[in-house]
C-alpha cells in the first residue's frame, strides 16, 4: 500500500505535471480549432478554448459591454464559451424563445431553497400549468382592479415623500425607486400596505436582496446547497431567505383569518395574494398549495422589484442626459393634468404618448436583463447558416438584439420618437423576453414605471445637480452621444455608483 502511494505521488513531479497540463492545453486548443462542431462559428480564440472571458465579464459586472463588443466584432452568432453560442439576431432570438424545445439552462434548476416555480422550472408542463394559474392574475385587465393599491404604494407615496424634501437640494432617486417597487409588489403579494419608502424600514428589501443572492449562488455553484454552506458559510443567507418565506406563510394565514371573519365572501381584497390563493388552472382545475402561493409571490418579488426600479432609474438618467426629451415629456404631462391629480395608467396611456415612448426607448437602450441561457434541443438548430448540435447551449442576448441595426436605425441613440404611434416597434423590444416564457409581470412593470414617471413629472421639475459627473454636454468623442453613468450587472443591470450618479434636484411645479 505504502509503495503504491509513493509511486502515485512520484507522478506529481514538476516535470510530469508540466507535461500533463501541456497535453491538456494542447488537446483543448486542437479540439476547439479543428474538431469542435463550433469551429466555423465566429468568435475569439480565448472564448473557444475557455469559459474564462465570459466568467471575468460576469464577475466584473461588464456583461453588457462584453456582449456588444463581440456582437459588433463577430456578428449575430458567435462562440461565447467552448460549448455555447451567443444569439443576437432578433428573429433568431424570437425563434428560440418561442418554443419550449429550447429548455432553460440547468442553472435555473440548481436553485432549491424554494419550491419549483414558474420562473426556475425547466419542465414545460409545470411552467404551462403555473402560467395558466398566475397569468390571468397579472393580466392588464386584472391589474386594473389592483390599481389603487399600486398607486398608493407607488407614485402617491413617492410624490408625498418627495414633496417634503423638494426645494432642499438633491436627492438620490435610485433607493427611492427601489423601496417603492418593493412596496408595490409587497403590498400586492403580502396583503397589507408595505411602506418601506416612507418608514425607512428596509427589512423586507434586505431579505429580498439576500434571497436573490442565495438564488444566484445556488444557480452558479450548487455546492452552496451542501451542509457546510447551509449551516456555516452561507447560514445568514439561508436565514434571511427563510424570513421571507415565513413572511409569505404568515400573510396567507392572516388572509384566511380575515376571510373567516368577513361575512361577505365576495368582498375579497383585490391583490395578488388573494388572486394567487384563488387561482385555478382552467385545464386541470388544480389550485396552488399554500407553499406554492408563497413561492410564486417571492419569485414575483425577486423578478419584479429590481428590474422595475432599475428601469425607472435608467429612464430618469436618460431623460436628464437628454433635456430636450425631458422638457417635451414634462410639457406633455402638464398640458393635460392638474398639479394635484394622480395620473392613472389608462390616463397615461391615452394622453402621454411621448412619455410612454421614452419608457420604451429606455427599455430598449438599457435593458436591465441581459443573457437568457437555453439548451439546444435534439436535432440541433441552424443559426445564421451555422449548425449548432444538441448537447451545446446558447444564450439569447437581449442587449445585442435590442441594438440590431437591421431593426433599429441609430441603435445607440436615445430616440423616443421611434416608438410614437408604433405599437409594432414596442413589441420588438426584447427586454421582457418574448414567446412561451415571456415575462408575465410585464403589465405590472409597465404600469408602475409609466405612472411613476407621469406623476413625478407632473408634480416636480427635475434638474441635474451642479456637481453631477454626467450631463448632456459630456459626450463621447467618437459617437458624439452623452456618456451614460457606469453600470454593473448582478443579474440585473444597475447603476454602478448610485450614491454618486443617481442624484437629482427636485423642485415643486410652479404653474
Ligand atoms: C422592468 C421590469 C421587468 C423586466 C425587464 C422583466 C424581464 C423578464 C425577463 C427577460 C424574463 C425571462 C427570463 C428568462 O427567460 O430567464 C422574465 C420572466 C419572468 N418575470 Fe419579469 N421582468 C420585469 C418585471 C417583472 C414583474 C413586475 C414580475 C412579477 C410580478 C415579473 C415576473 C416574472 C416571472 C414570474 C418570470 C418567469 C416566467 C417564466 O419563466 O415563464 N417580472 N422577466
UniProtKB/TrEMBL annotation:
Alphabetized Gene3D superfamilies for the sequence:
Cytochrome P450
Query: Which UniProt keywords are present, listed alphabetically?
Result: Heme, Iron, Metal-binding, Monooxygenase, Oxidoreductase
PROSITE patterns, per the entry: CYTOCHROME_P450 (PS00086)
Q: Per its UniProt record, what InterPro entries does this chain match?
A: Cyt_P450, Cyt_P450_CS, Cyt_P450_E_grp-I, Cyt_P450_sf, Cytochrome_P450_monoxygenase
- Organism whose genome encodes this protein: Coemansia umbellata
PANTHER family per the record? CYTOCHROME P450 (PTHR24305), CYTOCHROME P450 MONOOXYGENASE APDB-RELATED (PTHR24305:SF235)
Metal-binding among the record's keywords?
A: yes
Q: What is the lineage of its organism?
A: Eukaryota, Fungi, Fungi incertae sedis, Zoopagomycota, Kickxellomycotina
Q: Which cofactor does it need?
A: heme
> Would you say which domain of life the source belongs to?
Eukaryota
* A Pfam entry, by short name: p450
In the record, the note on similarity to other proteins reads: Belongs to the cytochrome P450 family.
The protein, known as = Cytochrome P450
Amino acid at each position: 500500500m505504502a509503495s503504491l502511494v509513493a509511486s502515485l505521488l512520484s507522478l506529481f513531479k514538476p516535470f510530469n505535471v508540466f507535461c500533463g497540463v501541456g497535453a491538456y492545453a494542447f488537446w483543448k486548443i486542437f479540439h476547439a480549432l479543428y474538431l469542435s462542431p463550433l469551429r466555423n462559428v465566429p468568435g475569439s480564440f480565448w472564448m473557444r478554448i475557455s469559459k474564462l472571458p465570459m466568467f471575468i465579464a460576469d464577475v466584473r459586472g461588464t456583461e453588457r459591454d462584453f456582449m456588444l463588443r463581440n456582437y459588433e466584432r463577430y456578428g449575430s452568432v458567435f462562440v461565447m464559451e467552448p460549448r455555447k453560442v451567443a444569439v443576437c439576431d432578433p428573429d433568431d432570438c424570437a425563434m428560440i424563445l418561442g418554443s419550449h424545445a429550447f429548455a432553460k439552462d440547468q442553472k435555473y434548476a440548481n436553485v432549491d431553497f424554494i419550491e419549483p416555480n414558474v420562473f426556475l422550472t425547466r419542465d414545460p408542463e409545470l411552467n404551462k400549468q403555473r402560467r395558466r394559474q398566475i397569468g390571468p392574475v397579472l393580466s392588464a385587465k386584472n391589474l386594473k382592479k389592483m390599481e389603487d393599491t399600486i398607486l398608493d404604494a407607488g407614485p402617491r407615496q413617492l410624490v408625498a415623500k418627495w414633496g417634503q424634501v423638494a426645494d432642499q437640494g438633491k436627492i438620490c432617486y435610485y433607493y427611492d425607486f427601489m423601496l417603492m417597487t418593493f412596496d408595490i409588489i409587497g403590498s400586492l403579494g403580502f396583503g397589507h400596505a408595505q411602506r418601506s419608502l416612507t418608514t425607512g424600514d428596509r427589512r423586507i428589501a434586505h431579505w429580498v436582496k439576500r434571497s436573490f443572492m442565495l438564488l444566484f449562488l445556488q444557480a452558479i455553484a450548487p455546492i452552496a446547497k451542501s451542509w457546510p454552506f447551509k449551516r456555516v458559510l452561507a447560514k445568514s443567507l439561508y436565514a434571511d431567505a427563510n424570513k421571507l418565506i415565513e413572511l409569505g406563510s404568515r400573510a396567507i394565514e392572516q388572509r384566511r383569518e380575515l376571510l373567516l371573519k368577513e361575512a361577505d365572501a365576495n368582498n375579497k381584497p383585490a391583490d395578488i395574494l388573494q388572486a394567487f390563493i384563488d387561482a385555478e388552472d382552467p385545464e386541470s382545475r388544480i389550485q396552488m398549495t399554500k407553499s406554492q402561493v408563497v413561492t410564486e409571490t417571492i419569485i414575483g418579488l425577486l423578478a419584479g422589484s429590481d428590474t422595475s426600479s432599475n428601469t425607472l432609474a435608467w429612464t430618469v438618467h436618460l431623460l436628464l442626459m437628454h433635456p430636450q426629451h425631458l422638457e417635451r415629456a414634462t410639457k406633455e404631462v402638464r398640458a393635460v393634468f392638474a398639479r394635484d391629480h394622480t395620473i392613472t395608467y389608462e390616463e397615461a396611456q391615452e394622453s402621454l404618448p411621448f412619455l410612454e415612448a421614452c419608457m420604451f426607448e429606455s427599455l430598449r437602450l438599457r435593458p436591465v436583463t441581459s443573457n437568457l441561457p437555453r439548451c439546444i434541443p435534439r436535432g440541433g438548430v441552424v443559426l445564421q447558416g451555422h449548425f449548432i448540435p444538441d448537447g451545446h447551449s446558447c444564450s439569447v442576448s437581449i442587449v445585442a438584439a435590442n441594438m440590431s441595426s437591421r431593426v433599429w436605425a441609430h441603435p445607440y441613440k436615445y430616440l423616443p420618437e421611434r416608438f410614437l404611434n408604433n405599437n409594432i416597434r414596442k413589441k420588438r423590444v426584447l427586454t421582457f423576453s418574448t414567446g412561451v416564457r415571456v415575462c408575465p409581470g410585464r403589465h405590472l412593470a409597465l404600469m408602475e414605471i409609466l405612472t411613476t414617471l407621469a406623476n413625478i413629472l407632473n408634480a416636480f421639475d427635475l434638474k441635474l445637480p451642479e456637481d453631477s459627473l454626467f450631463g448632456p454636454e459630456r459626450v463621447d468623442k467618437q459617437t458624439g452621444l452623452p456618456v451614460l453613468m457606469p453600470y454593473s450587472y448582478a443579474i440585473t443591470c444597475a447603476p454602478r455608483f448610485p450614491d454618486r450618479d443617481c442624484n437629482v434636484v427636485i423642485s415643486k411645479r410652479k404653474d
